[in-house]
Amino acid sequence: MKDIGKYDSLKLENQVCFPLYACAKEIVSQYTPYLKKLGLTYTQYIVMMVMWEHEKVSSRELADKLHLDYGTLTPVLKKLESTGYITRQRDPEDERLLILNITKKGTKLKDEALKIPPCIAACVGLNAEEFQLLYILTYKALSNMENAKCKTK
Q1: How distant, in Å, are the alpha carbons of 4, 13, 30, 98 from that of 36?
Q2: What is the CATH number of domain 30-114?
Q3: What is the pLDDT of residues 11-68, one digit of tens each?
Q4: Which of 61, 68, 98, 116 has its CB surrounded by the most CB atoms within 10 Å?
Q5: What is the Cα–Cα distance from 61 to 79, expressed in whole angstroms?
Q6: 104-113 and 42-54 are packed helices; what angle lies between their axes, rounded to 10 degrees?
Q7: pTM above 0.70, yes or no
Q8: CB 43 within 8 A of CB 71
Q9: How far is 76 from 42, CA to CA, in rounded Å?
C-alpha cells in the first residue's frame, strides 16, 4: 500500500510532454493540406518563414533559429534551392558556412502563405490572450530547457 502514488509521475495523464508532443503533431497535420498547395513540407515552410523575414541568413543562423541540426536542414535547403525559392553559396570568409538568399520566386510565395496562419488559428480555437499565454509559456519552457541542458546522470 505504501507504493500508491509512487509511480504517479510516470502516468501519461500527468506528463506535460505528452500533450505538447501530441499538439505539435496535430498542428503540423493541420498545416499539411495548406502547405501541400504551396508544394512545401512543414520544415520547408518554417525555413521560408525565416527567409521571408531576413532574406539572407547563414546556415548556422537558420539552424539556431529553427532548433534544427544540419543533418535535418541540409536536404530541406537542397529541395528549396531546387524549387527556386532560395540560393545557397559558400561564405567566402568561412567556407564551412552557407549563405542562404531568398529568390524572387521565394518572395512571391509569401503572399500565398499569408492565408495559412488564420486557418490554423481557427483550428486551434484559442482567443488572442490564450494564444499569447501559450506562446510565452512555450518559449519560456524551451529557453529554460536549453539553458539547463539537463543530462542523464
Answers
A1: 49, 33, 11, 27
A2: 1.10.10.10
A3: 999 999 999 999 999 999 999 999 999 999 999 999 999 999 999 999 999 999 999 9
A4: 98
A5: 19
A6: 110
A7: yes
A8: no
A9: 10
